[in-house]
Amino acid sequence: MRLVAIGDSFTEGVGDERADGTVRGWADRVAEGLATATGDPVEYANLAIRGRKLGPIVDEQLEAALALEPTLMTYNGGGNDIMRRRVDMPRLMKLSRHVADRCREAGVRLVALAGPDPTSRIPLGRVVHRRGELLTADIVQLTEEFELTFVDMWHDREIRRPAYWGADRIHLNSDGHRRVAGQVLTALGHPAPPAPSRVENPKRSLSDNLVFYQEHVGPWVRRRVQGRSSGDHRSAKHPTYVTVSPAMMGGGG
Q: How far is it, in rounded angstroms, from Cα 239 to Cα 118?
């Protein structure tokens, strides 16, 4: 099996850091789960880069991913687009359709994901939520038309709980990435890894909210004003295949 993942910070694995500071994430966990379920090594590449809007994901990652001749590809994007001041929703749908078309032409099984909904805890959450609903509805339509495997984390109520999110409130923590991986593996017909005991919501005080705005909202706004991205000058963590066995990438819980 050759698995390639494309997308943004969600797919890169931001928020699910190992002890050495490298990111793991749900896609890594899916590769591990597939290796465990099949008993065979999985060749795994991850081209996702944090901060990428959907246009660059499609323009810069899709053909590079297909050039690796995968048997399975995961796709998610648009989360960074719907958080911008203006967004062209029809263009997002057109880009996703292009991904589906190219994978069908190449004979690659495509798994499309709708990312989880962070909007109850972020500024302008209602606006972003409406856009996310539209984006997810478009992906549902596309996956039905192309008969794709679809994992709808946007409407997963459990993962909306604060317990699954990091300090910045827009990236999942390790428990969140673990839950997404379980949903993907289940959709692929394989066992999900054992779930932890119930994850408790963090208790947040007024000082926690002040820190949130100082350390996360403020820098995010400055990057938008300056036209910068958290992914500037970054490259993919696995641009070519690494071989994954059940024990190789298991650090970090």
A: 28
Radius of gyration of the chain from its Cα atoms, rounded to whole angstroms? 17
Q: Are 221 and 83 in contact (CB under 8 A)?
A: no
Q: Give the chain's domains with CATH numbers.
A: 2-244 (3.40.50.1110)
CA 25 to chain centre: 8
Which has the closest alpha carbon to 134: 105, 171, 96, 167?
96
Rounded Cα distance between 82 and 119, Å, is: 11
| Helix/strand/coil percentages in the chain, nearest 5 | 45, 15, 40
Q: What angle do CA 195, 175, 116 make, to 5 degrees?
A: 110
What is the rounded CA–CA span in Å between residue 249 and residue 237? Answer: 13
First-to-last alpha carbon distance for the chain, in angstroms, is: 24
| Predicted TM-score of the model (pTM) | 0.86
Q: In what order do the strands lie in the sheet with 72-75?
A: 149-152, 109-114, 72-75, 2-6, 42-46, 238-244
The Cα 70–Cα 3 span in angstroms is 6
Amino acid at 218: G
**119: which 2 tokens?**
């909007």
Q: Output the CA–CA distances (angstroms, integers) from residue 111 to 102, 129, 145, 167, 227, in the order listed.
A: 13, 23, 14, 28, 31
Q: How far is CA 118 from CA 5, 128, 165, 237, in A?
A: 22, 9, 8, 25
Helix, coil or strand: residue 111: strand
* pLDDT one-digit tens code per residue, 183-228: 999 999 998 877 766 677 766 655 666 665 566 566 656 665 666 6
